[in-house]
């Protein structure tokens, strides 16, 4: 049997806790020094924001990119670029990031919750027919926890129905879906540079456009006359640029670490990794699992607490969007069975440990196995 887990008084796998994020980055340090030396950090208009927008467009192979103050604002701007407004409906997954739901409300539109796929708890394209109505103006697709939405199927369905598509790649910056960068399948793609994201400036977001008309609508809305009212700062743009340049290599590294982790955990029951049935490479901002408390022998909350005691950054997932909300605030397409299951059963490993060594990943897996092997003793403690 493995050594006693930390929740029972054993030595934690990571005594100093999960790796800090953002991690030390010489490229970011050099960019910060250059911005300080030139005074770029304090300018309204400098070289870094337009340079970053050009680099984002080139990285994603789209003609237009636009930065803004946050990923949530990027989603709102994307919906506005598709002319979503009062009385319209927007389809999104019943399991999603809550601010996306609230953003639809901020526009005066109604969220329509579609179910998620059983194999990865991301939006199920097969649920779109049941969610659609004559009021449907857009579909909002989020790639979550290492899962990928089958964007070719979603976009084909939307095109046949004359409905716009916003592809939220805030958890999937650097991922590919069916041969294209995540965020480039829909009419508008959105990214986030929030504090825990794979590419971070603490705050910030971006939009990706193939269509110039949508780009112009978004740009005009984000300006009051000649002044942007919610911009990405010059300093933030300077810090994002070296991270974007290193993103592809980092994605390859994290993908290899996840493959190792899943091999190491293959003999642990009750943890089913998200499965993608569309060709692509997830970015792994988080690594999602379906958690079965009956098979693993501990409640989800106790399991997460035990891994947190080991210094391993497992967390429960989001709350399902319909949970605890008045039905007047949304329309549900069906019983949302899988979305309900996702809200009750998802756990996810945060990405910083995936930037480390193979040994770090093996220590994560060993900590999980220790918690499983000592499950009966943990149960008796009534945590």
Structure description:
With 383 residues, the chain is an alpha/beta fold. It has two domains: 26-245, 3-Layer(aba) Sandwich (Aspartate Aminotransferase, domain 2), CATH 3.40.640.10; 247-380, Aspartate Aminotransferase, domain 1, CATH 3.90.1150. It is built from 14 helices and 17 strands. It has helices at residues 26-38, 48-60, 71-81, 98-106, 128-131, 151-161, 212-221, 234-245, 247-264, 293-296, 300-309, 337-345, 358-373, 375-380, and strands at residues 64-68, 89-93, 110-114, 136-142, 164-168, 176-177, 180-181, 188-192, 205-209, 223-224, 227-228, 271-273, 280-281, 286-291, 314-316, 331-332, 346-350. The strands form four sheets. It has an eight-stranded mixed sheet, sandwiched between helices. The protein is globular, with a radius of gyration of 21 Å. The two termini are 21 Å apart.
Overall CATH class of the largest domain: Alpha Beta
By CATH, the topology of the largest domain is Aspartate Aminotransferase, domain 2
Can you name the CATH architecture of the largest domain?
3-Layer(aba) Sandwich
The best one-word shape is globular
Strand order of the largest sheet: 1-9-8-5-4-2-3-16
Backbone CA Rg: 21 Å
The helix count comes to 14
What count of domains describes the coordinates? 2
What's a concise summary of this model?
The protein folds into 2 domains: 26-245, Aspartate Aminotransferase, domain 2 (3-Layer(aba) Sandwich); 247-380, Alpha-Beta Complex (Aspartate Aminotransferase, domain 1), CATH 3.90.1150. 38% of the residues lie in helices and 17% in strands.
């Amino acid at each position: 049997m493995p050594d006693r887990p930390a929740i029972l008084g054993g030595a934690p796998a990571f005594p100093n806790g999960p790796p800090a994020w953002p991690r030390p980055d010489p490229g970011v340090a050099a960019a910060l020094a250059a911005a300080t030396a030139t005074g770029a950090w304090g300018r309204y208009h400098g070289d870094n924001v337009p340079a970053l927008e050009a680099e984002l467009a080139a990285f994603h192979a789209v003609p237009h990119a636009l930065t803004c103050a946050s990923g949530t604002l990027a989603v709102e701007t994307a919906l506005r670029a598709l002319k979503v407004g009062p009385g319209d409906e927007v389809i999104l997954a019943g399991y999603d990031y809550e601010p996306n739901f609230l953003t639809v409300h901020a526009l005066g539109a109604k969220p329509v919750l579609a179910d998620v796929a059983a194999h990865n708890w991301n939006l199920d394209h097969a649920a779109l027919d049941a969610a659609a109505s004559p009021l449907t103006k857009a579909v909002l697709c989020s790639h979550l926890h290492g899962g990928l939405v089958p964007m070719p199927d979603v976009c084909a369905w939307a095109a046949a129905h004359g409905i716009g598509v916003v592809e939220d790649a805030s958890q999937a910056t650097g991922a590919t879906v069916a041969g294209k960068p995540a965020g480039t399948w829909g009419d508008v793609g959105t990214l986030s540079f929030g504090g825990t994201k794979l590419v971070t400036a603490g705050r910030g977001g971006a939009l990706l456009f193939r269509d110039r008309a949508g780009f112009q609508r978004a740009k005009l809305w984000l300006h009051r006359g000649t002044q942007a009212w919610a911009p990405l700062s010059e300093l933030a743009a300077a810090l994002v640029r070296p991270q974007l340049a290193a993103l592809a290599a980092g994605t390859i590294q994290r993908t290899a670490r996840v493959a190792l982790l899943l091999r190491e955990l293959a003999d642990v029951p009750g943890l089913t990794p998200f499965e993608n049935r569309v060709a692509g490479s997830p970015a792994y901002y988080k690594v999602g699992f379906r958690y079965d408390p009956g098979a693993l022998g501990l409640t989800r909350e106790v399991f997460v607490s035990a891994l947190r005691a080991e210094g391993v950054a497992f967390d429960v997932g989001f709350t399902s969007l319909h949970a605890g909300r008045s039905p007047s605030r949304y329309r549900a397409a069906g019983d949302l069975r899988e979305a309900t299951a996702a809200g009750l059963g998802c756990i996810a490993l945060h990405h910083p440990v995936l930037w480390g060594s193979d040994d770090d990943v093996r220590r994560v897996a060993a900590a999980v196995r220790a918690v499983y092997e000592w499950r009966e003793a943990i149960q008796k403690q009534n945590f």
